[in-house]
Amino acid sequence: MDFNDTPEEAEFRTEVRAFLQQHGDKYRTRDSFSRKNAKEWQAIKADAGYAAITWPTRLGGRGGTEIQQVIYDEEERHYELVYNVFRVGLGMCMPTLFAYATEEQLERYVEPALRGEELWCQLFSEPAAGSDLAGIRTKAEQDGDEWVINGQKIWTSFADTADFGILLARSDFDAPKHKGLTFFFLDMKSPGIECRPIKQITGDSHFCEVFFDDVRIPDNQRLGKIGGGWKVALTTLMNERMAVGHAGGPDFEEIFALAQSLEIDGQPAFKNGAVREKLVDWFITCQGVKYTNFRLITALSQGQQPGPEASIMKLVGAEKQQEIASYGMDLIGMGGNVMDKELSPMAAAFQDSFLFAPVSQVAGGTNEIMRNIIAERVLGLPADIRIDKDVPFRDLPTGPGK
Amino acid sequence: MDFNDTPEEAEFRTEVRAFLQQHGDKYRTRDSFSRKNAKEWQAIKADAGYAAITWPTRLGGRGGTEIQQVIYDEEERHYELVYNVFRVGLGMCMPTLFAYATEEQLERYVEPALRGEELWCQLFSEPAAGSDLAGIRTKAEQDGDEWVINGQKIWTSFADTADFGILLARSDFDAPKHKGLTFFFLDMKSPGIECRPIKQITGDSHFCEVFFDDVRIPDNQRLGKIGGGWKVALTTLMNERMAVGHAGGPDFEEIFALAQSLEIDGQPAFKNGAVREKLVDWFITCQGVKYTNFRLITALSQGQQPGPEASIMKLVGAEKQQEIASYGMDLIGMGGNVMDKELSPMAAAFQDSFLFAPVSQVAGGTNEIMRNIIAERVLGLPADIRIDKDVPFRDLPTGPGK
Amino acid sequence: MNFDISEDAKAVANTARDFLREHSPMTAIRRVFDEEIQYDAELWKSMAELGWLGAGIPEKFGGFELGGEVLCVLAEEIGRVLAPVPFSTSVSLATSAICAHGSDAQKCDLLPKMAAGEIIGTFALAEGVGDPSPARIEAVVENGRLNGNKYPVADGSVADFVVIVAHDSAGDIGLYFCDLSASGITSTPIESVDPSRNTVSLSFENVEVEPLGDAWQGWQSVQNILDQAAVILAFEQTGGAQACLEMARDYAIERYAFGRPIGSFQAVKHKLANVYIATELARSNAYYGAWALGENSAELAQAAATAHLSACNAFQLAARENIQTHGGMGITWEADCHMYFRRAKSLGLEIGGSLFWQERLMSQLEQQATG
Amino acid sequence: MNFDISEDAKAVANTARDFLREHSPMTAIRRVFDEEIQYDAELWKSMAELGWLGAGIPEKFGGFELGGEVLCVLAEEIGRVLAPVPFSTSVSLATSAICAHGSDAQKCDLLPKMAAGEIIGTFALAEGVGDPSPARIEAVVENGRLNGNKYPVADGSVADFVVIVAHDSAGDIGLYFCDLSASGITSTPIESVDPSRNTVSLSFENVEVEPLGDAWQGWQSVQNILDQAAVILAFEQTGGAQACLEMARDYAIERYAFGRPIGSFQAVKHKLANVYIATELARSNAYYGAWALGENSAELAQAAATAHLSACNAFQLAARENIQTHGGMGITWEADCHMYFRRAKSLGLEIGGSLFWQERLMSQLEQQATG
């Protein structure tokens, strides 16, 4: 048992460090959603073979291993270079294209995506279909060699700036839920598409609503069979990157620092037994997540594929974020409501995190869905009773809200 | 808002106190399951009109109010006179008889039950039907004027000493689950009945398994219609007494006393911030339960009937019992495992309660069932999907375990 | 035993609920969030006319002397709809400070105008980080002049005056009245977790203030004001928790996933059962607080801490689970969920955080145990 | 990165799992519960033959020197089946005390017999209530004679000797070896939450004891023995947690209610998902402990406390939820659930309760923060 790289891993890490040392500082950013610099940085990565480490070389990848990707990500994180803007395109859209697009399409679309020249987005969720993704209602009607799309998507990151998107739509309302879906990719500049940013609880807008009004897509941009869209969507979802344990915002280190800087009854706050107990709980969870991650990395290093076990990282991370943020505000006491960065300890990091935490607990699968995944896919418990699998979609109850 | 009795209530309380002062001390007990003294005490209560306060006078009751019963119970508790042995008979069996038995049967059975001369038990749960009571499989076959019973019951208090029992059995395996049940009462001395005490986690045996081997019951001891047993059973269950908030075992007072008597780092344990936080949590819960109970009593005093809201008392009480018992042992530290009454603080009350707590969380409805009740009956949330309502009982899946 | 809100108070509560449903829909607080208005002046005026602002003020000072229970149920109704008015500051904290400690002249001057809704007061205790404590107070009054900084001060941007906790040159803690139009005051808006609270930072440079009466008993007087406020706040929080529970319940019935209402899933059911339990326990503890407030019982300190802590738990849990029940919709600005989420946290900090009230409660229990 | 148990240790673990499945079914511990036997002497003998009892003993003292990781995985397998043998006392606590502090003569005398399963040792620290602390120790050795009371002592009724924590006439804490057949010892069985632990109270009246070596550093030596034991215990607890999770999972699949497996209900699913999460976090933290133990790292104290606390959480949660998943069956003596429930609590107290280990961990984190 050791924390060391294998000789091959160490060699790769050395290479990566040299690369980052040469180029990294110039592209540092604190806004991971920004496109500023991102495109240029992506091209440099692509040239050096780091843009898509696990992709086969024929698609412009490095033909590397999962553990190499982990090593690269670890190192890149030190430079604050993690641009989220290409994550959806490279992590989800391209792998779907690999499985279902023609050679000509791959030739056309993969390289520009890899080099950050074209941005992709994913059009899946709808207002009435979140956890229950297969319940989408956006309609796709065939019209000769084209499809006509009408409906609404939601929670699409970068929809307003993306060049292309992958789209799941319903082509048959009489088939059972999972059988009537068809999958496309489309030009986001097509006429009839309207994007509206959604203001989140934090006041920021990281997502869009997307409205489709008679948007036309050529049939050759269909991926998979007519009515086979669910199978394609599962390919996309399987490629969601291994969730990270850290949901963002203050973690143990920060709450410990806060408890050292504040006082309770004239003593540093961390001397108080109640505070100590909380700190210990979070430390243990934090360490547990860290070393669980090490175990997953070890498994990757031994050639295994990431499994649903990683769901625990996302779940534990999101719940910890909520608790730590809220308790940090309690420690700050009557000043805990203050969000002015100059007036609030640690530049209001706890308050920011408090408002973002509910987003973490919902985005990328609610806590409830994560627990279902663990129970069913990891522990092998039986699925819930399903009443929505075998009836025509249009006959499914949708409630008074619709 | 006040904590005082109304003039009528005060008058009744005075009467009760005088009665208890006269007779109570002689029948004090610490073993609420004991039949020692219980029968004699019950007769005295019956003579004085306190054995069944809310029953109509024609059935030997006092014709009193729910609040009078509460007042009586409050006062009786000071004398440790709460004999559980008659609770099932008077609280559940007799009200079922009132609704379904003939006048002759009432004449025959009610008074002896009321006076403690005959003990009743309830034969409902089965090994494969606990939370899902309607899933019972004990078979009732009609044979002329009689019914022949075969099967097994479980969790029956006092089955081994009871004179009579009420029984829910399945008379039709081809009808849907809730439609094939028939309800009886029977003589527990009937041939073919065998009772075996069940040893619980605590080592005690408060319940029995009951086996039926061709036990015969006359048809005139059927209550309700053939196939109408579920409706009768609901009458029985509706009469379960208002759950109490205190699940037994140490509560806030006791853990506070323990934390005063023990030391951590040379200080009384309750000076430790972590201990203080726990104490405060339990105090708040404890007070919340107490005042919720006061609100329920006030509602009774205003003539309302107890509703499903009382489920929260049972649920909160059982969970609090578990936490307090476990934490008490933690406070005792390395000596926390010791169950010898002379060696363990407070006569090993925390250890005893620790082992009994799982029983509290299951008996009388699991925590899960309690939460379902609150969600559905109090909050009005929709029922779960049911697949067991409309198919013949014999076709229902019972799993590999059967 | 009659452990229930009195019929009189219930009648006020029912009127208030109907009135607020009609006159304080969530559009009002949205206008505050969008910085169109600072508070609902229209509603405030109506509240004065209905006698609510004078509920805690004696008749001889222009009030209606409706008693503590009425204040409590009004707070509950206001909490339910997040009515954007300076209730917890002006009607609760400032009013009770003046009633308890003001001189007759101050009472005659201020209380009738407060009851009539002509002036708004607030209460300035906090000085940045930390819980209520005499050791935290650096604001000082010397020769009738105040120097110091107070923040956050809720409703500071809509108040006409402020009751200030400061010490004098001898180091004794006292209560001072300060007109916010006095010279030497700089009032700076503060970005707050709950933007509807009109929070400011007040900086005082040689500002003329007058002592609030002359009979305070140092910190004890401050603590007593906080105890009273804690009970009233507990009702406001319980009202908020109840609103969250009902929103979540309604959404869980209406929203379908997998062909069925999400409220038919145990994950949602059990979550909401837990919220119901916390809310009912909080309500019961709040009633105990109302009793102690009404009787001015020696148990007030204990009852207030119990009620407030219990209500903090309930409201914060209810607000969090309400968002989670709403899923993606819950994390949008457009949904009302986040306003309750912000308010729940904000009310849990306004008069000191949970560690402060836990300590307050434990010290009461210790006194009983040893006394 | 290779953050996994070594292949060698895994091989031992696999053998142990198969062996214990065959030779230590739950019937063995039932015989202890029913007081037919005190421990599984047959199994103990086999364990000696398999080299497990000498896993932590150097070769030159008759052991197999298999390393800390092997001890850890053996503990995990023993925890999984609740094997009724004095592992945590004799193989972990007593052995590590002797290896670390015994004189060469003591090692030569004791360790080969321990490795061979000929003698059993235990460790006597507790004196009734309280967590490990020098201030709690009243047992005293003067002129080679011990006076005092030690309880609870796990496996005390099957042990041949005991390593005792006592102070000398100067008040210094030390470790002493005591043969349990010495005169002046009264050993009284104690009723314990976990009846399979052979718990006794030992009373010493002028009992001849000898110092365990001569190089202890007072309390630091005791604490170091506890740190090592905490890591090994964390594995035993994780094994128990895993067993509870699997029992509950299997029951939830087999048991039907309302016409469907109870494991298809979210209430059960989410409960078991939480148990899985706690168990996985505990396992990861236990691995960290094993690493620190194997490397004799300066982080051992921190890693041990983290591993043990995490494992306490996991095992206690898993044992509780296992009962609850089993419903009525779970609260019977006949079901195995309660044996895990008892063991989970008992292992969480054996070397000090959670407050003690929390404090131990925090003090390490403080040192790092300030150092």
For the structure shown, list the relevant keywords:
heterotetramer; A: 402 residues; alpha+beta; Butyryl-Coa Dehydrogenase, subunit A, domain 1; Butyryl-CoA Dehydrogenase, subunit A, domain 2; Butyryl-CoA Dehydrogenase, subunit A, domain 3; four-stranded mixed beta sheet; four-stranded antiparallel beta sheet; 11 helices; 40% helix; globular; C: 371 residues; 3 domains; eight-stranded mixed beta sheet; two-stranded antiparallel sheet; 53% helix
How would you describe this structure to a colleague?
- The complex is a heterotetramer, with 2 copies of chain A (402 residues) and 2 copies of chain C (371 residues).
- Chain A is of the alpha+beta class and 402 residues long.
- Chain A has 3 domains: 7-114, Orthogonal Bundle (Butyryl-Coa Dehydrogenase, subunit A, domain 1); 120-238, Butyryl-CoA Dehydrogenase, subunit A, domain 2, CATH 2.40.110; 252-378, Butyryl-CoA Dehydrogenase, subunit A, domain 3 (Up-down Bundle).
- Chain A has 11 helices and 10 strands.
- Chain A has helices at 7-23, 38-48, 66-77, 87-100, 103-114, 229-238, 252-261, 273-301, 311-332, 349-360, 367-378; strands at 120-123, 139-143, 146-156, 164-170, 181-187, 193-198, 207-218, 222-223, 263-264, 267-268.
- In chain A, the strands form 3 sheets. Chain A has a 4-stranded mixed beta sheet. In chain A, strands 2-3-7-6 form a 4-stranded antiparallel beta sheet, with no helix packed on it.
- In chain A, strand 2 (139-143) and strand 3 (146-156) form a beta hairpin.
- The radius of gyration of chain A is 23 Å and the shape is globular.
- Chain C has 371 residues and is α+β, with helices and mostly antiparallel strands.
- Chain C has 3 domains: 7-119, Butyryl-Coa Dehydrogenase, subunit A, domain 1 (Orthogonal Bundle), CATH 1.10.540.10; 122-211, Butyryl-CoA Dehydrogenase, subunit A, domain 2, CATH 2.40.110; 219-370, Up-down Bundle (Butyryl-CoA Dehydrogenase, subunit A, domain 3).
- In chain C, strands 1, 2, 3, 4, 5, 6, 7 and 8 form an 8-stranded mixed beta sheet that branches. A two-stranded antiparallel ribbon of chain C has the order 9-10.
- In chain C, strand 2 and strand 3 form a beta hairpin.
- Chain C starts with 6 loop residues before the first helix and ends with a helix.
- The mean pLDDT of chain C is 96.
- Classes of the chains: A alpha+beta (402), C alpha+beta (371).
- At the A-C interface, strand 9, helix 9, helix 10 and helix 11 of A face strand 9, strand 10, helix 9, helix 10 and helix 11 of C.
